[in-house]
Amino acid sequence: MIEFYPHQEDVLEQTKGRMKCAHYLKMGLGKTFTGAEQMVRLAAEYNLLVCQKSKVGDWINHITAYYPHLNVTDYTKKDAEIQPGVIVINYELVWRRPEFKKMSGFTLMLDESSKIMHDTAKVTKFIKKLKYDGLILLSGTPCGGRYELFLSQIHMLGWPISKSLFYKQYCVTESFKTTDGMWHKQVVGYKNIDRLKRKLADYGAVFMETEDALKLPDVNDQVIKINPPAQHKQFINDRIVIVDGEEIVGDTPLKTMLGCRKICAYHNEDKFAALSDLVESADDRVIVFYNFTAEYIKAYDAVKHLNRPVSAVNGQAVNLTAYENCERSITFVQYQAGAMGLNLQKARRIVYLSPPLQWELFDQSKARIRRIGQKKTCFYYYLTTTDSVEEKIYKTLKQRKNFDEILFLRECIVND
Protein backbone atom coordinates (compact mmCIF):
# COMPACT_ATOMS: atom_id res chain seq x y z
CA MET A 1 0.00 0.00 0.00
CA ILE A 2 1.47 3.34 -1.07
CA GLU A 3 1.39 6.08 1.55
CA PHE A 4 0.74 9.34 -0.26
CA TYR A 5 1.45 12.85 0.98
CA PRO A 6 -1.69 14.87 1.85
CA HIS A 7 -1.33 17.05 -1.25
CA GLN A 8 -1.10 13.94 -3.44
CA GLU A 9 -4.25 12.51 -1.85
CA ASP A 10 -5.95 15.83 -2.62
CA VAL A 11 -4.95 15.63 -6.30
CA LEU A 12 -6.21 12.06 -6.61
CA GLU A 13 -9.48 13.03 -4.93
CA GLN A 14 -10.00 15.90 -7.39
CA THR A 15 -9.51 13.61 -10.40
CA LYS A 16 -11.30 10.58 -8.92
CA GLY A 17 -13.41 8.81 -11.53
CA ARG A 18 -12.30 11.05 -14.40
CA MET A 19 -11.35 9.33 -17.64
CA LYS A 20 -9.38 12.40 -18.72
CA CYS A 21 -7.35 14.53 -16.35
CA ALA A 22 -4.14 16.51 -15.94
CA HIS A 23 -1.86 16.62 -12.91
CA TYR A 24 -0.05 19.91 -13.41
CA LEU A 25 2.03 19.70 -10.26
CA LYS A 26 5.11 21.83 -9.86
CA MET A 27 8.37 19.95 -9.88
CA GLY A 28 9.11 17.99 -6.74
CA LEU A 29 5.50 17.32 -5.72
CA GLY A 30 5.52 13.71 -6.88
CA LYS A 31 3.36 13.63 -10.00
CA THR A 32 4.97 10.28 -10.86
CA PHE A 33 3.13 8.83 -7.86
CA THR A 34 -0.20 10.53 -8.57
CA GLY A 35 -0.07 9.77 -12.28
CA ALA A 36 0.72 6.09 -11.82
CA GLU A 37 -2.01 5.73 -9.20
CA GLN A 38 -4.55 7.48 -11.43
CA MET A 39 -3.64 5.09 -14.25
CA VAL A 40 -4.04 2.02 -12.02
CA ARG A 41 -7.40 3.23 -10.75
CA LEU A 42 -8.69 3.58 -14.33
CA ALA A 43 -7.95 -0.16 -14.61
CA ALA A 44 -7.52 -0.38 -18.37
CA GLU A 45 -6.16 -3.64 -19.74
CA TYR A 46 -3.60 -1.74 -21.81
CA ASN A 47 -1.79 1.42 -20.73
CA LEU A 48 0.56 3.40 -22.97
CA LEU A 49 3.01 5.56 -21.03
CA VAL A 50 5.02 8.08 -23.07
CA CYS A 51 7.91 9.89 -21.40
CA GLN A 52 11.33 11.35 -22.04
CA LYS A 53 14.11 8.99 -23.06
CA SER A 54 15.95 9.62 -19.80
CA LYS A 55 12.87 8.63 -17.78
CA VAL A 56 12.02 5.27 -19.36
CA GLY A 57 14.05 3.33 -16.81
CA ASP A 58 12.69 5.35 -13.90
CA TRP A 59 9.10 4.68 -14.91
CA ILE A 60 9.72 0.97 -15.39
CA ASN A 61 11.35 0.79 -11.95
CA HIS A 62 8.54 2.78 -10.33
CA ILE A 63 5.72 0.63 -11.68
CA THR A 64 7.59 -2.60 -10.99
CA ALA A 65 8.29 -1.54 -7.40
CA TYR A 66 4.85 -0.20 -6.47
CA TYR A 67 2.54 -2.21 -8.73
CA PRO A 68 4.21 -5.63 -9.07
CA HIS A 69 0.95 -7.17 -10.31
CA LEU A 70 1.24 -5.18 -13.55
CA ASN A 71 3.25 -6.42 -16.50
CA VAL A 72 5.64 -3.73 -17.76
CA THR A 73 6.93 -3.69 -21.35
CA ASP A 74 9.95 -1.62 -22.34
CA TYR A 75 8.89 -0.68 -25.86
CA THR A 76 12.18 1.02 -26.62
CA LYS A 77 13.52 -2.49 -27.24
CA LYS A 78 13.42 -3.64 -30.88
CA ASP A 79 11.91 -7.04 -30.09
CA ALA A 80 9.20 -5.67 -27.76
CA GLU A 81 5.59 -6.71 -28.32
CA ILE A 82 2.34 -5.09 -27.23
CA GLN A 83 1.11 -6.88 -24.13
CA PRO A 84 -1.51 -6.19 -21.44
CA GLY A 85 -0.22 -4.01 -18.62
CA VAL A 86 1.93 -0.91 -19.03
CA ILE A 87 3.82 -0.16 -22.23
CA VAL A 88 6.60 2.40 -21.73
CA ILE A 89 8.12 4.31 -24.65
CA ASN A 90 9.76 7.70 -25.21
CA TYR A 91 8.49 10.61 -27.31
CA GLU A 92 11.18 10.23 -29.97
CA LEU A 93 10.07 6.68 -30.76
CA VAL A 94 6.32 6.61 -30.19
CA TRP A 95 5.36 8.30 -33.48
CA ARG A 96 7.50 5.76 -35.34
CA ARG A 97 5.36 2.87 -34.04
CA PRO A 98 2.28 2.69 -36.32
CA GLU A 99 0.97 -0.34 -34.41
CA PHE A 100 -0.26 1.99 -31.67
CA LYS A 101 -2.77 3.45 -34.14
CA LYS A 102 -4.49 0.05 -34.20
CA MET A 103 -5.04 0.05 -30.44
CA SER A 104 -8.24 1.32 -28.85
CA GLY A 105 -9.82 1.54 -25.43
CA PHE A 106 -6.52 1.99 -23.60
CA THR A 107 -5.27 4.60 -21.12
CA LEU A 108 -2.69 7.06 -22.42
CA MET A 109 -0.37 8.79 -19.96
CA LEU A 110 1.95 11.56 -21.15
CA ASP A 111 4.73 12.40 -18.72
CA GLU A 112 5.97 15.95 -19.34
CA SER A 113 3.02 16.64 -21.61
CA SER A 114 4.63 19.94 -22.58
CA LYS A 115 6.38 17.80 -25.22
CA ILE A 116 3.22 18.05 -27.33
CA MET A 117 2.93 21.86 -27.28
CA HIS A 118 3.48 22.26 -31.01
CA ASP A 119 0.55 21.16 -33.17
CA THR A 120 2.71 20.80 -36.28
CA ALA A 121 5.22 18.42 -34.67
CA LYS A 122 5.04 14.80 -35.86
CA VAL A 123 4.82 13.44 -32.34
CA THR A 124 1.89 15.75 -31.49
CA LYS A 125 -0.02 14.84 -34.64
CA PHE A 126 0.54 11.14 -33.99
CA ILE A 127 -0.53 11.22 -30.34
CA LYS A 128 -3.68 13.25 -31.03
CA LYS A 129 -4.84 10.61 -33.51
CA LEU A 130 -4.59 7.72 -31.03
CA LYS A 131 -7.87 6.05 -29.98
CA TYR A 132 -7.52 6.10 -26.21
CA ASP A 133 -10.33 6.13 -23.64
CA GLY A 134 -8.37 7.29 -20.62
CA LEU A 135 -5.94 10.23 -20.64
CA ILE A 136 -3.52 11.43 -17.98
CA LEU A 137 -1.30 14.47 -18.59
CA LEU A 138 1.61 15.13 -16.25
CA SER A 139 3.73 18.27 -16.20
CA GLY A 140 5.16 20.85 -13.85
CA THR A 141 5.30 23.40 -16.68
CA PRO A 142 2.58 22.31 -19.13
CA CYS A 143 3.15 25.18 -21.54
CA GLY A 144 6.55 26.49 -20.50
CA GLY A 145 4.98 29.79 -19.48
CA ARG A 146 3.63 30.29 -23.00
CA TYR A 147 -0.11 29.79 -22.72
CA GLU A 148 -0.62 30.13 -26.47
CA LEU A 149 1.08 26.70 -26.73
CA PHE A 150 -1.39 25.13 -24.30
CA LEU A 151 -4.07 24.40 -26.89
CA SER A 152 -2.99 20.86 -27.83
CA GLN A 153 -3.40 19.68 -24.25
CA ILE A 154 -6.59 21.68 -23.76
CA HIS A 155 -8.18 20.03 -26.78
CA MET A 156 -7.07 16.57 -25.66
CA LEU A 157 -8.79 17.14 -22.32
CA GLY A 158 -12.00 17.83 -24.21
CA TRP A 159 -12.38 21.62 -24.25
CA PRO A 160 -13.07 22.59 -27.90
CA ILE A 161 -12.13 26.29 -27.65
CA SER A 162 -10.86 27.76 -30.93
CA LYS A 163 -7.42 29.31 -31.28
CA SER A 164 -8.82 32.74 -32.13
CA LEU A 165 -11.12 32.78 -29.10
CA PHE A 166 -8.34 31.53 -26.83
CA TYR A 167 -6.04 34.34 -27.98
CA LYS A 168 -8.81 36.90 -27.52
CA GLN A 169 -9.63 35.81 -23.98
CA TYR A 170 -6.22 34.89 -22.58
CA CYS A 171 -3.37 36.46 -24.60
CA VAL A 172 -2.02 39.99 -25.02
CA THR A 173 -0.31 40.68 -28.35
CA GLU A 174 1.49 43.60 -29.94
CA SER A 175 3.20 44.37 -33.24
CA PHE A 176 6.60 46.00 -33.57
CA LYS A 177 9.24 46.72 -36.18
CA THR A 178 12.69 45.23 -35.68
CA THR A 179 16.06 46.40 -36.89
CA ASP A 180 15.76 44.23 -40.00
CA GLY A 181 12.79 46.35 -41.15
CA MET A 182 10.22 43.59 -40.67
CA TRP A 183 7.00 43.82 -38.68
CA HIS A 184 6.36 41.07 -36.16
CA LYS A 185 3.36 40.16 -34.02
CA GLN A 186 4.15 38.58 -30.70
CA VAL A 187 2.38 37.46 -27.57
CA VAL A 188 3.75 39.77 -24.89
CA GLY A 189 1.59 38.79 -21.95
CA TYR A 190 -1.46 36.98 -20.68
CA LYS A 191 -4.73 37.80 -18.99
CA ASN A 192 -7.51 36.02 -17.13
CA ILE A 193 -5.17 33.13 -16.23
CA ASP A 194 -7.03 32.35 -13.00
CA ARG A 195 -10.22 32.08 -15.02
CA LEU A 196 -8.43 29.81 -17.51
CA LYS A 197 -7.32 27.47 -14.73
CA ARG A 198 -10.83 27.39 -13.22
CA LYS A 199 -12.23 26.47 -16.63
CA LEU A 200 -9.65 23.73 -17.08
CA ALA A 201 -10.59 22.33 -13.68
CA ASP A 202 -13.96 21.50 -15.24
CA TYR A 203 -12.04 19.24 -17.62
CA GLY A 204 -9.99 17.50 -14.95
CA ALA A 205 -6.91 19.71 -14.71
CA VAL A 206 -5.32 20.22 -11.29
CA PHE A 207 -2.73 22.99 -10.88
CA MET A 208 -0.57 22.93 -7.76
CA GLU A 209 2.36 25.12 -6.77
CA THR A 210 5.17 23.77 -4.63
CA GLU A 211 4.63 26.46 -1.99
CA ASP A 212 0.99 25.39 -1.63
CA ALA A 213 1.96 21.85 -0.70
CA LEU A 214 5.45 21.63 0.77
CA LYS A 215 8.07 23.55 2.65
CA LEU A 216 11.20 23.12 0.53
CA PRO A 217 14.75 24.16 1.49
CA ASP A 218 16.04 27.71 1.08
CA VAL A 219 17.72 28.85 -2.14
CA ASN A 220 21.06 30.60 -2.50
CA ASP A 221 21.60 32.20 -5.95
CA GLN A 222 25.10 33.33 -6.86
CA VAL A 223 25.93 35.15 -10.10
CA ILE A 224 29.58 34.74 -11.00
CA LYS A 225 30.57 37.38 -13.55
CA ILE A 226 32.99 36.35 -16.28
CA ASN A 227 34.72 38.83 -18.57
CA PRO A 228 33.92 38.33 -22.28
CA PRO A 229 36.71 37.04 -24.54
CA ALA A 230 38.23 39.47 -27.03
CA GLN A 231 36.58 37.61 -29.92
CA HIS A 232 33.13 38.52 -28.61
CA LYS A 233 33.46 42.21 -29.43
CA GLN A 234 35.12 41.39 -32.75
CA PHE A 235 32.19 39.16 -33.70
CA ILE A 236 29.61 41.80 -32.73
CA ASN A 237 31.38 44.34 -34.94
CA ASP A 238 32.33 42.17 -37.93
CA ARG A 239 29.76 39.33 -37.79
CA ILE A 240 32.55 36.86 -38.46
CA VAL A 241 35.38 35.48 -36.36
CA ILE A 242 37.57 32.39 -36.14
CA VAL A 243 38.03 31.00 -32.65
CA ASP A 244 40.04 27.83 -31.93
CA GLY A 245 39.71 26.86 -35.57
CA GLU A 246 35.92 27.32 -35.67
CA GLU A 247 34.59 29.91 -38.10
CA ILE A 248 31.55 31.63 -36.63
CA VAL A 249 29.46 33.62 -39.09
CA GLY A 250 26.55 35.92 -38.21
CA ASP A 251 25.02 36.62 -41.61
CA THR A 252 21.48 36.46 -40.17
CA PRO A 253 20.08 37.58 -36.80
CA LEU A 254 19.55 33.96 -35.76
CA LYS A 255 23.13 33.00 -36.61
CA THR A 256 24.43 36.11 -34.87
CA MET A 257 22.58 35.14 -31.71
CA LEU A 258 23.90 31.58 -31.94
CA GLY A 259 27.43 32.85 -32.54
CA CYS A 260 27.29 35.11 -29.49
CA ARG A 261 26.04 32.20 -27.37
CA LYS A 262 28.81 29.89 -28.60
CA ILE A 263 31.56 32.41 -27.92
CA CYS A 264 30.24 33.04 -24.42
CA ALA A 265 29.58 29.37 -23.68
CA TYR A 266 32.67 27.50 -24.81
CA HIS A 267 35.16 29.96 -26.28
CA ASN A 268 35.75 31.63 -22.93
CA GLU A 269 38.63 30.13 -20.96
CA ASP A 270 37.88 32.32 -17.93
CA LYS A 271 34.53 30.56 -17.60
CA PHE A 272 36.13 27.11 -17.40
CA ALA A 273 38.71 28.35 -14.91
CA ALA A 274 35.83 29.59 -12.75
CA LEU A 275 34.10 26.20 -13.08
CA SER A 276 37.25 24.42 -11.94
CA ASP A 277 37.56 26.69 -8.92
CA LEU A 278 33.92 26.19 -7.99
CA VAL A 279 34.05 22.41 -8.20
CA GLU A 280 37.33 22.26 -6.30
CA SER A 281 35.85 24.30 -3.45
CA ALA A 282 32.78 22.05 -3.14
CA ASP A 283 33.14 18.95 -0.99
CA ASP A 284 29.92 17.32 -2.19
CA ARG A 285 28.07 16.48 -5.43
CA VAL A 286 27.95 19.12 -8.18
CA ILE A 287 25.50 19.20 -11.11
CA VAL A 288 26.59 21.16 -14.20
CA PHE A 289 24.03 22.21 -16.83
CA TYR A 290 25.16 23.06 -20.35
CA ASN A 291 23.87 23.57 -23.92
CA PHE A 292 26.52 22.57 -26.47
CA THR A 293 28.54 19.38 -26.88
CA ALA A 294 31.74 21.43 -27.30
CA GLU A 295 30.89 23.14 -24.02
CA TYR A 296 30.71 19.76 -22.26
CA ILE A 297 34.04 18.61 -23.74
CA LYS A 298 35.85 21.73 -22.55
CA ALA A 299 34.15 21.63 -19.15
CA TYR A 300 35.17 18.01 -18.67
CA ASP A 301 38.77 18.86 -19.59
CA ALA A 302 38.70 21.76 -17.12
CA VAL A 303 37.85 19.57 -14.12
CA LYS A 304 39.51 16.24 -14.93
CA HIS A 305 42.66 17.22 -13.02
CA LEU A 306 40.53 17.14 -9.84
CA ASN A 307 40.20 13.35 -10.21
CA ARG A 308 36.54 13.32 -9.22
CA PRO A 309 34.07 10.69 -10.54
CA VAL A 310 31.95 11.94 -13.43
CA SER A 311 28.43 11.16 -14.63
CA ALA A 312 26.76 12.49 -17.77
CA VAL A 313 23.24 12.90 -19.14
CA ASN A 314 23.02 13.95 -22.79
CA GLY A 315 21.66 12.89 -26.15
CA GLN A 316 24.20 10.09 -26.45
CA ALA A 317 24.04 8.50 -23.01
CA VAL A 318 22.51 8.53 -19.54
CA ASN A 319 25.04 7.38 -16.97
CA LEU A 320 24.40 8.31 -13.34
CA THR A 321 26.59 5.69 -11.67
CA ALA A 322 29.06 8.20 -10.26
CA TYR A 323 26.25 10.49 -9.10
CA GLU A 324 24.46 7.67 -7.29
CA ASN A 325 27.52 6.20 -5.60
CA CYS A 326 30.06 8.98 -5.09
CA GLU A 327 29.50 11.92 -2.78
CA ARG A 328 32.11 14.10 -4.52
CA SER A 329 30.96 13.35 -8.07
CA ILE A 330 30.40 15.81 -10.93
CA THR A 331 27.33 15.28 -13.13
CA PHE A 332 27.14 17.03 -16.51
CA VAL A 333 23.57 17.44 -17.78
CA GLN A 334 22.56 18.76 -21.19
CA TYR A 335 19.37 20.78 -20.85
CA GLN A 336 17.36 19.00 -23.54
CA ALA A 337 18.23 15.56 -22.18
CA GLY A 338 17.95 16.06 -18.44
CA ALA A 339 16.38 19.34 -17.34
CA MET A 340 13.03 17.56 -16.94
CA GLY A 341 12.28 14.50 -14.90
CA LEU A 342 15.60 13.57 -13.31
CA ASN A 343 15.75 13.14 -9.54
CA LEU A 344 19.07 14.62 -8.43
CA GLN A 345 18.26 15.60 -4.86
CA LYS A 346 21.34 13.83 -3.53
CA ALA A 347 23.08 16.98 -4.76
CA ARG A 348 22.44 20.50 -3.55
CA ARG A 349 24.63 22.46 -5.98
CA ILE A 350 23.95 23.33 -9.62
CA VAL A 351 26.37 25.24 -11.83
CA TYR A 352 24.97 26.85 -14.98
CA LEU A 353 27.71 27.03 -17.60
CA SER A 354 25.37 28.84 -19.99
CA PRO A 355 21.64 29.61 -19.97
CA PRO A 356 19.01 27.83 -22.08
CA LEU A 357 16.66 29.83 -24.30
CA GLN A 358 13.52 28.17 -22.90
CA TRP A 359 12.16 29.26 -19.53
CA GLU A 360 10.63 25.81 -19.06
CA LEU A 361 14.03 24.10 -19.20
CA PHE A 362 15.53 26.67 -16.85
CA ASP A 363 12.70 26.37 -14.34
CA GLN A 364 12.66 22.58 -14.47
CA SER A 365 16.43 22.29 -14.15
CA LYS A 366 16.32 24.04 -10.77
CA ALA A 367 13.87 21.47 -9.46
CA ARG A 368 16.24 18.58 -10.11
CA ILE A 369 17.75 19.21 -6.67
CA ARG A 370 15.04 21.23 -4.85
CA ARG A 371 12.29 18.65 -4.47
CA ILE A 372 10.83 16.09 -2.05
CA GLY A 373 13.68 14.50 -0.13
CA GLN A 374 15.98 17.51 -0.20
CA LYS A 375 16.72 18.81 3.29
CA LYS A 376 19.65 21.17 2.68
CA THR A 377 19.89 24.69 1.24
CA CYS A 378 20.18 24.56 -2.55
CA PHE A 379 22.95 26.55 -4.23
CA TYR A 380 22.72 27.79 -7.83
CA TYR A 381 25.79 29.28 -9.50
CA TYR A 382 25.35 31.22 -12.76
CA LEU A 383 28.60 31.64 -14.72
CA THR A 384 27.58 34.73 -16.67
CA THR A 385 29.58 36.50 -19.36
CA THR A 386 29.21 40.22 -18.74
CA ASP A 387 28.01 42.67 -21.42
CA SER A 388 26.78 39.76 -23.53
CA VAL A 389 23.68 37.95 -24.71
CA GLU A 390 23.89 35.74 -21.61
CA GLU A 391 22.87 38.63 -19.36
CA LYS A 392 19.92 39.34 -21.64
CA ILE A 393 18.86 35.69 -21.60
CA TYR A 394 18.99 35.38 -17.81
CA LYS A 395 17.01 38.60 -17.44
CA THR A 396 14.31 37.21 -19.74
CA LEU A 397 14.23 33.79 -18.04
CA LYS A 398 13.68 35.45 -14.66
CA GLN A 399 10.56 37.02 -16.18
CA ARG A 400 9.32 33.48 -16.96
CA LYS A 401 9.70 34.07 -20.69
CA ASN A 402 11.59 32.38 -23.50
CA PHE A 403 14.41 34.19 -25.26
CA ASP A 404 14.20 34.04 -29.05
CA GLU A 405 15.39 35.73 -32.23
CA ILE A 406 12.73 38.43 -31.94
CA LEU A 407 13.86 39.39 -28.46
CA PHE A 408 17.46 39.25 -29.62
CA LEU A 409 16.66 41.95 -32.17
CA ARG A 410 14.36 43.87 -29.88
CA GLU A 411 16.95 44.10 -27.12
CA CYS A 412 19.22 45.83 -29.67
CA ILE A 413 22.04 43.37 -29.23
CA VAL A 414 22.51 43.55 -32.97
CA ASN A 415 23.07 47.07 -34.24
CA ASP A 416 23.37 47.20 -38.00
Quick overview of this protein structure:
This protein has helices at residues 6-14, 31-42, 56-66, 91-94, 122-128, 151-157, 163-170, 193-201, 210-213, 230-238, 253-266, 269-281, 293-303, 321-325, 335-338, 359-366, 389-398, 405-410; strands spanning 20-25, 46-51, 72-74, 85-90, 104-111, 131-138, 171-177, 183-190, 205-208, 219-226, 240-243, 246-249, 286-290, 310-313, 318-319, 330-334, 349-352, 378-385.
What are the defining features of this structure?
416 residues; 7-stranded parallel sheet; nucleotide-binding; Rossmann fold; ATP binding; 18 strands; alpha/beta; helicase activity; 7-stranded mixed sheet; globular; disordered C terminus
Secondary structure elements and pairings:
Elements: H1 6-14, E1 20-25, H2 31-42, E2 46-51, H3 56-66, E3 72-74, E4 85-90, H4 91-94, E5 104-111, H5 122-128, E6 131-138, H6 151-157, H7 163-170, E7 171-177, E8 183-190, H8 193-201, E9 205-208, H9 210-213, E10 219-226, H10 230-238, E11 240-243, E12 246-249, H11 253-266, H12 269-281, E13 286-290, H13 293-303, E14 310-313, E15 318-319, H14 321-325, E16 330-334, H15 335-338, E17 349-352, H16 359-366, E18 378-385, H17 389-398, H18 405-410
Parallel strand pairs: 1-6, 1-9, 2-4, 2-5, 3-4, 5-6, 10-18, 13-16, 13-17, 14-16, 17-18
Antiparallel strand pairs: 7-8, 11-12, 14-15
Domain Helicase C-terminal: 270-373
Organism: Eubacterium aggregans
GO molecular function, one term: ATP binding
